[in-house]
Amino acid sequence: MMANVPNFFYWIAAGALLFGGVFFLRFILKFAWKIMRVVLITLAAFLIAGYLFGFLDIIFR
Predict the structure, then answer these.
(1) Per residue in 14-40, pLDDT tens?
(2) Strand (E) or helix (H) holding 59
(3) CA atoms within 13 A of residue 33's CA, in its CB half-sphere
């Protein structure tokens, strides 16, 4: 590939996108983990409440 000025600017732009994408992905994963944690805690609370109130028939052997 020829190393001319437009290609040089494309390489700089691609590097900036990759560098910025790492930080953006970290933000997205942190946000998704917060939502997932709330969902898992809520699901666990519903399962425990359902078992204690008799809505769920879970047999432990």
Answers:
(1) 999 999 999 999 999 999 999 999 999
(2) none
(3) 6
Burial 16-39 (b: 16+ CB within 10 A, else e): eeeeeeeeeeeeeeeeeeeeeeee
Confidence of residue 42 (pLDDT cuts 50, 70, 90): very high
Chain centroid to CA 48: 26
What CA dihedral angle connects 30, 33, 39 and 43, to 10 degrees? -150
Contact 58, 50 (CB under 8 A): no
Q: Give 27-35's long-range contacts (Cβ < 8 A, gap of 24+).
A: none
